[in-house]
Design a protein that fits this description.
The complex is a heterodimer of chains A (170) and B (176).
Chain A lengths: L1 H68 L3 E6 L2 E6 L4 E7 L5 E6 L4 E5 L5 E12 L4 E13 L2 E12 L5
Chain B lengths: L1 H78 L2 H4 L7 E6 L7 E5 L4 E2 L3 E12 L5 E2 L4 E17 L2 E12 L3
Antiparallel strand pairs in B: 1-2, 1-4, 3-4, 4-5, 4-6, 6-7
The chains are: A alpha+beta (170), B alpha+beta (176).
Chain lengths: 170, 176
């Protein structure tokens, strides 16, 4: 009994200091952990918005340029709206921003019918400027498009630029 | 009988508690190392992912700018071959969008340095083209074809200290 009591007292003194060290270490570790996790989460949000913008920018630019290349004449051109004729005027393609700020693609013989959006959900088309270029021999369209993505409070804006000649206009 | 068990319980309980508390410091140290290793690798992986996403966004934008450069040169050619023939070979030119005429906007060449979105540098260089007696483009010999030029459009951008360059190369001919 004497031995046990002695051992118990000796260890009790150690435990107190240990507890202080333990608590302070745990506080430091959890602070670092929380901070590091916040950085990781923020980075992931940023890269998620960047990937979102990239995918929509790529899809929209590719879709518009492909139709420009296979078009013959321009029907309607203004900010946010581009309508062109293809295949000896038998097919009409139209790009227009919707009320929800997505970029919609329409196609049809007489009146173009909505095919679907070229931008993904959560992407806003902030600016879409079409400029007509007439060389006398050919027609071309310059595209300037600004996309905005918002993921959990992180907003990112990006401009995309390109120009395409209507191959059928030669 | 019951006293014996109680004593045993007391003895066992104390040793157990003392053993655990004595090792706590070492355990914390090990835990700290494991946690920091895991977090370190997480942060590294995340930053690599982030850099990849940024790279891919700039690369997509750069590709469209290079494509636009090629189309702009074709537009200059379509407007008049003199837009191309008066330019010097082997010299860096920039492109600018001329909106001075409200009815006829067009792309033009300039030697004035311009940067797109403060990130992208887009230049183009012209090279003379020689053809042999069969009209084939040759790198050596042949005779100079004044109605053909080789065009290199290059788009470059900096990202985290490294420069990436995309080059598109085409031949352009006078269509008259």
């Amino acid at each position: 009994m004497n031995i046990i009591s002695k051992k118990y007292n000796k260890n009790k003194a150690f435990t107190l200091i240990e507890m202080i060290i333990y608590i302070s270490l745990m506080t430091i570790i959890s602070l670092i952990m929380v901070e590091a996790l916040m950085i990781v989460l923020r980075s992931n949000k940023t890269s998620f918005t960047e990937i979102n913008i990239r995918n929509s920018g790529y899809g929209a630019m590719e879709g518009m340029l492909r139709e420009i290349y296979s078009s013959e004449s321009i029907d309607e051109i203004s900010n946010g709206v581009l309508q062109m004729k293809q295949n000896s005027d038998t097919n009409i393609v139209r790009f227009a921003t919707s009320s929800a700020s997505a970029l919609n693609f329409y196609e049809g013989a007489g009146t173009p019918i909505l095919v679907g959006p070229l931008t993904s959900k959560g992407i806003l088309v902030k600016n879409l400027i079409f400029t007509k270029i007439d060389t006398g021999k050919s027609l071309a369209i310059r595209i300037q498009m600004e996309l905005e993505a918002e993921v959990n409070g992180i907003t990112k804006n990006e401009w995309f630029y390109s120009t395409g000649i209507l191959r059928g206009s030669y | 009988m019951s006293k014996k068990i109680n004593n045993f319980k007391f003895l066992y309980g104390m040793t157990s508690v003392n053993y655990k508390k004595g090792s706590a410091l070492v355990e914390i140290l090990v835990a700290v190392f494991i946690f920091s290793a895991i977090l370190g690798s997480l942060i590294t992986a995340s930053s690599m992912y982030l850099r990849g996403a940024g790279d891919s966004l700039r690369s997509a934008k750069g590709a469209y700018l290079a494509q636009e450069g090629v189309e702009a040169i074709k537009i200059m050619r379509d407007t008049g071959w003199s837009n191309i023939s008066t330019l010097n070979n082997n010299t860096d030119y920039y492109l600018y969008f001329d909106t001075s005429s409200s009815t006829n906007n067009t792309w033009k060449a300039t030697s004035t340095i311009s940067t797109i979105d403060s990130i992208f540098d887009r230049t183009f260089k012209l090279y003379s083209v020689n053809r042999d007696s069969n009209g084939r483009v040759v790198l050596n010999g042949g005779t100079l074809d004044s109605n053909t030029r080789e065009v290199n459009v290059s788009v470059s951008w900096r990202l985290k200290g490294a420069t990436t360059t995309k080059v598109l190369s085409i031949y352009i001919t006078n269509m008259q």
